[in-house]
């Protein structure tokens, strides 16, 4: 059994609330501070252990996840497609920094049906 110890700094942004529709897609956009443009970014779920990392900016596309880093705006966006009820829950946007990654909490809520585009709330 592997043990992952994470020291994290939570962003001052607070929690990003995102609502999506089952069977649809949702976009999760996370901002980061100046100076981190060249660092790797990622989206993870649960405790962010090895298998909890869903996608990184070095991959761009993995399974149902796509990620794009707009270094000019300093925002990276992860698109999650084919949403299912088990996709709801807590996620973390992360920036890989030696010794202490920077995290922003994301809460994804799903509602039944496909009633238009997902709604993002900050």
Automatic annotation (TrEMBL):
Gene3D superfamilies referenced in this protein's UniProt entry, alphabetically: Immunoglobulins
GO molecular function, a single term: transmembrane signaling receptor activity
Family annotation (Pfam families): V-set
Keywords: Membrane, Signal, Transmembrane
Principal location listed in the UniProt entry: membrane
Subcellular location: Membrane
Stored InterPro entries: CD300_family_receptors (IPR050671), Ig-like_dom_sf (IPR036179), Ig-like_fold (IPR013783), Ig_V-set (IPR013106)
Listed SUPFAM superfamilies: Immunoglobulin
Keyword Kinase among UniProt keywords: no
All residue ranges annotated as the Immunoglobulin V-set domain in the record: 18-103
This protein's GO CC annotations: plasma membrane
Range of residues in the leader sequence: 1-20
UniProt-recorded name of the protein: Immunoglobulin V-set domain-containing protein
Species of origin: Astatotilapia calliptera
